Amino acid sequence: MTPPFDVAxxxxxxxxxxxxSRCVAHGLSVLALDPRPDxxxxxxxxxxxxxxxxxxxxVVRARVPGxxxxxxxxxxxxxxxxxxxxxxxxxxxxxxxxxxxRARLSDADVAALRAEARVVVDARGARxxxxxxxxPAPAQTAYGIVVPADAAAPALQDxxxxxxDWRTDWAxxxxxxxxxxxLYAIPVGPDAVLxxxxxxxxxxxxxxxxxxxxxxxRLLARGVEASVLDRPLDREVVRIPxxxxxxxxxxxxxxIGTAGRGGNLVTGYSVAHSxxxxxxxxxxxxxxxVPRVADPVSPADPLREMGLRALLRLDxxxxxxLFDAFGRLxxxxxxxFMSRDSDAVGLAGAMWGMxxxxxxxxxxxxxxxxxxxxxxxxxxxxxxxV
Length: 386
Ligand SMILES: Cc1cc2nc3c(=O)[nH]c(=O)nc-3n(C[C@H](O)[C@H](O)[C@H](O)COP(=O)(O)OP(=O)(O)OC[C@H]3O[C@@H](n4cnc5c(N)ncnc54)[C@H](O)[C@@H]3O)c2cc1C
Hints:
Blueprint: E1 5-10, H1 14-25, E2 30-34, E3 46-48, E4 60-65, E5 68-70, E6 74-76, E7 80-84, H2 86-92, E8 99-102, H3 107-112, E9 117-122, E10 139-148, H4 149-156, E11 162-165, E12 182-189, E13 192-202, H5 208-222, H6 226-230, E14 234-241, E15 254-255, H7 271-287, H8 301-313, H9 316-327, H10 331-338, H11 344-357, H12 360-371
Parallel strand pairs: 1-2, 1-9, 2-8, 5-11, 9-15
Antiparallel strand pairs: 3-7, 4-7, 5-6, 10-13, 10-14, 11-12, 12-13
Helix pairs in contact: 1-7, 8-11, 8-12, 9-11, 9-12, 10-11
Flavin-adenine dinucleotide binds next to α1, β2, β14 and α7.
């Protein structure tokens, strides 16, 4: 018997909604399921200006030309960085014509949808059963506050935005030790700035309480008023499992976004990739050429695994040397390092460029971190790719 729908999409985050929207635009019949289908996404999503694709400028909440990387030197990055307006982004990904069901699905429920749809897509995100306490998986964690732009000025120190400020004024008198973190300081509108202490990757993720303490120490050291820190306009907690779901998809279904392999192992980002991938997948569904996996394993994957391994294991001076070298890369190589969609040749070139620009002590640390025995910096179990 022919199933009633062409496509069922489970989960309406950025990955699921963009795919459902493109499928219906291509004339497919679509069922979408999510426990809160009307909820506006809460995270502050950033993408690069050149990743906006066909989306209208209306989806941009803030556009920052040349955000800076600061390590031992200051490096303006030659690209616009965009903070997305999540409500406008949802409007730009309309679901008219999609049958939307309010439901929370287990793996068995997802498998059962094969009776209802020719293609079943799992877009339930990295943790469909909720966050796991003491999750040992490598994760990016961050704690941020939104403050008025004038109050944030001492933190920005004349930059329009700080994509990554790796300087160690979070450390106080004892000096930096343990897990490296950076300040992400990005305007989220004309009058407000998000100031976020971020651990790019640790296994397990660095606790939010530690990030909160570091952010406070750093901002006070820069002259931000304590009263501003005590009463921010908003707060954000970030927890991104670097390997997404990290399990095989439910048999007979296609996993996309962070439910699948849509995330970038090195940056934790996935939104730009999901937005870019949706139309090609929808087109494939119209022709009946449904791929076996949405984001197949590629030769660039082992390189990204190496990158993640280095991030998990380098100490503070080693991490600073790595990102100082990143700041001195030519812009196309920087793009290749950060993009989920760069190929192996481009990524290898960028990684080699960083290695070549590191001082000898940094090079030694990077070699040990990448190729040495499998013990993480914090003594957690060996790093195992899934
Ligand atoms: C605070 C924060 C900030 C981030 N910032 C960025 C950024 O700037 N740029 C970037 O690229 N990435 C960012 N990320 C990482 C990542 O890209 C996001 O997590 C992104 O939301 C992943 O999109 P997704 O659609 O794959 O999954 P999700 O956004 O997690 O969406 C999953 C959807 O599935 C639904 N769902 C969950 N469980 C079930 C279930 N059992 N049954 C049915 N539906 C279910 C949920 O309701 C949700 O709608 C950030 C993450 C966080 C937490």
